[in-house]
Structure formats: C-alpha cells, structure tokens
UniProtKB/TrEMBL annotation:
SPOR domain boundaries: 50-126
Example of a GO MF term: peptidoglycan binding
Pfam families: SPOR
Protein's name in the database: SPOR domain-containing protein
C-alpha cells in the first residue's frame, strides 16, 4: 500500500514539473492606471496627515519674553504684509516663524532679505504650511 501511494506521489510530482512555461498577457490599461496612481501618490506625499502642505518657514526669533515676541510679529507684518507670521509657544519659549514657503529656495531668498534687517540668527525650518495648490496641479493629480 505504501509503495502504491509513493508511486502515485512520484508520478504526480513528475507531471507537475513537466510544465515549462507560462504566458501572461497584461492589459495595456494597467500601465495607465499605474501611472495615474503614481502621480496621485506624488501629489499626496506633499501633504501631512492633517491636510497641511509640507514646506518651510523662517524662525526669526526664539525668546522667553512674550512682549518681545508679539512686537517682532507686528514688525514683520508691517514690513512684509504679503507674508504671514506665527507665534508658537513651546514652554518656556516663544518662537516667531515667518512665511509659508513650498520651496527651500524661496525661504532662503527671504532669509537673506531678513538677515539684512535683523542680524540675529534666522533659520529655515521644516514646517506644515498653509498652501492651496493651483487648479491645474489638482486636476493633473486626479
């Protein structure tokens, strides 16, 4: 009985290995779907989990004085009305962050402008920025 089962098993494995090639035909629409998904992933990777854009801001001031922080914020808004400034409190420090930059080059350009006005250390920091992409960028990703 064992010999018969062994022979059947051996014959089955020999027959199973006798297939030497498999032809797979891929639908050409899969390439289009793959490209579309890749562009969506690239677009989505620019956003954080809470819907804000990954970008850069300039950290202009880091102080313990609340009055000094709000004075700097008002001064920045007066000199650069086209850019926003933000006050962050991370105990015990108040930090002033400036701008919503999507490119590091833009942030560095503003850093050079601010460095001429404010000689203390100004740093480019990664942050979540407010940004609404142009309509054509949104439609390309969809």
């Amino acid at each position: 009985m064992k010999a018969i089962i062994s022979c059947i098993f051996c014959l089955y494995t020999v027959c199973a290995f006798s297939q030497d090639s498999i032809v797979v035909r891929k639908d050409s629409r899969l390439d289009m779907l793959n490209a579309k998904q890749a562009s969506l992933n690239k677009f989505a990777s620019k956003f954080t989990s809470n819907g804000l854009y990954r970008g850069y801001r300039l950290q202009v001031l880091n102080t313990r004085s609340r009055d000094q922080a709000y004075k700097m914020k008002a001064e920045l808004l007066q000199r650069f009305p086209e850019q926003k400034s933000y006050v962050l409190f991370q105990a015990p420090y108040f930090k002033i962050r400036f701008g919503n930059f999507t490119d590091k080059e833009d942030a560095l350009r503003y850093k050079n402008i601010l460095a001429a006005i404010y000689p203390q250390g100004i740093y480019v920091v990664n942050d979540e920025v407010e940004y609404k992409p142009p309509r054509e960028e949104e439609t390309d990703a969809q």
